[in-house]
Amino acid sequence: MSNRKFNVAVVGATGAVGEQIVNLLEKRDFPVEKIKFLSSPRSAGTLISFKGQQIPVEIATPDSFEGIDIALFSAGGDVSKELAPHAVRHGAVCIDNTNAFRMEPTAPLVVPEVNSDKIAEHQGIIANPNCSTIQMVAALKPLYDQYGISRIIVSTYQAVSGAGSRAIDELNRQSAAILNGDEVQPDLLPVGSLPVKHQIAFNAIPQIDKFQDNGYTLEEMKMVRETKKILGDDSVDVTATCVRIPVVYGHSESVYVELKKDYDLEEVRNLLASAPGVTLVDDPAAQLYPLASEAAGKPDVFVGRVRRDLGNSRGLNLWVVSDNLLKGAAWNAVQIAEIIAAKAE
C-alpha cells in the first residue's frame, strides 16, 4: 500500500453524485494532499465542508487541473468531453461518471468487483458504467464465471435521483400537489430537453433518455452495450426495458438470465452470497427480499427472489437492487480511485 497522497479534483461537486463522491472521499479517508471542487459558474463560490475545512467551489476550466493527480467527473457528458482531455494533458487520471467515454476503445469501463484488471489499461480516462449496468453485472459476474451466460433480459425500475436533484424536487412537488387535490404540471421528466413531459408522481414512465432509431431508449442501449464491454463478451444477448418510478433513491431490476450450463440453485445462492460487493437477501418465507428503501445509503448490490425459470432449465430469475448514487455512481468511482492510489508508487 502506497503512502503517497494525491491532489484530487471533483468536477460537479455540488450535484447529487458529486456530493456523494465528496462524502465518500472524506468518510473513506482517501489520501488527499489537496482537493479542488469544480463546477459551472452557477455554483461557483459555494462552500463545501471537507475534513473540517470550508472549501469554496471554483469554476471548472481547462487549466483547473494543473497539478491534479486524480479527477472525478460527474457534471454531465458535455463537460466531460470538453474538460477531461485537458485534465489528461495536465497529467491527471480521470474517472468519468458520464456516458462521454464509456464506449471509447481506449477508455476502460470498470466495475471493480467485475473487471478491476482493466484499470491498468487506461490512457488517462477510466469510465464509470451506467448505474443500472453496474448493479446488474456485479450480480451476474459470479454466474458468468461459473456457468457462462447466453442471454439477459432486464427490466429496470429506476429512482428519480438518477435524473438529478431537479427530478427529486419534481417528484416531491407533484406528490404534494396530487395529495392536495391540485393539478400537476410536469416540467422535467422523462427527458428535460424533449417537448413532452409526463407526471412521475404515482406513475411509471417507460422512457429513460431519448429513443433511438431501433425503438429502444439510450438508457436501454447503454445497458446492452456496456454489459458486453464489461464482460468482454459480445456473444451475450442483452435486451432491456428501463422505467422511471416514483422512488427517490435505489434502482430495482428484474433480471432473467439464461446460463450456458445446467446449474444447482443452492450453488447459485452460494455464489451470490460470497460475491464481492453483493449481499444475498432471499428468504421468501419471511418475506425477505431486496427493497430500494433498505438499499438506500448502502454501498452493496442486493440480490433476492432467486428462482428457476419455469420453462427453461438453464433460465434463472433475480431481483437486483442498489443505491444508484452510491454503487451506481459515486462509490464505484471512489473504489476505482482507491485502487489507483493503492497501486501508485
UniProtKB/TrEMBL annotation:
One of its GO terms (molecular function) is aspartate-semialdehyde dehydrogenase activity. This is Aspartate-semialdehyde dehydrogenase. Its EC number is 1.2.1.11. One of its GO terms (biological process) is diaminopimelate biosynthetic process. It comes from the Bacteria. NADP(+) binds at residues 14-17, 42-43, 161-162, 324. The keyword NADP applies. It comes from Paenibacillus polymyxa (strain SC2). Substrate binds at residues 158, 244. Keywords: Amino-acid biosynthesis, Diaminopimelate biosynthesis, Lysine biosynthesis, Methionine biosynthesis, NADP, Oxidoreductase, Threonine biosynthesis. Phosphate binds at residue 102. It catalyses: L-aspartate 4-semialdehyde + phosphate + NADP(+) = 4-phospho-L-aspartate + NADPH + H(+). Homodimer. Signal peptide: none annotated. Pathway: Amino-acid biosynthesis; L-threonine biosynthesis; L-threonine from L-aspartate: step 2/5; Amino-acid biosynthesis; L-lysine biosynthesis via DAP pathway; (S)-tetrahydrodipicolinate from L-aspartate: step 2/4; Amino-acid biosynthesis; L-methionine biosynthesis via de novo pathway; L-homoserine from L-aspartate: step 2/3. The keyword Lyase does not apply. SMART domains: Semialdhyde_dh. NCBIfam families: asd_B (TIGR01296), PRK14874.1 (NF011456). It is an enzyme of class 1 (oxidoreductase). The active site is at residues 131, 251. Residues 7-122 form the Semialdehyde dehydrogenase NAD-binding domain. Belongs to the aspartate-semialdehyde dehydrogenase family. HAMAP family: ASADH. Catalyzes the NADPH-dependent formation of L-aspartate-semialdehyde (L-ASA) by the reductive dephosphorylation of L-aspartyl-4-phosphate.
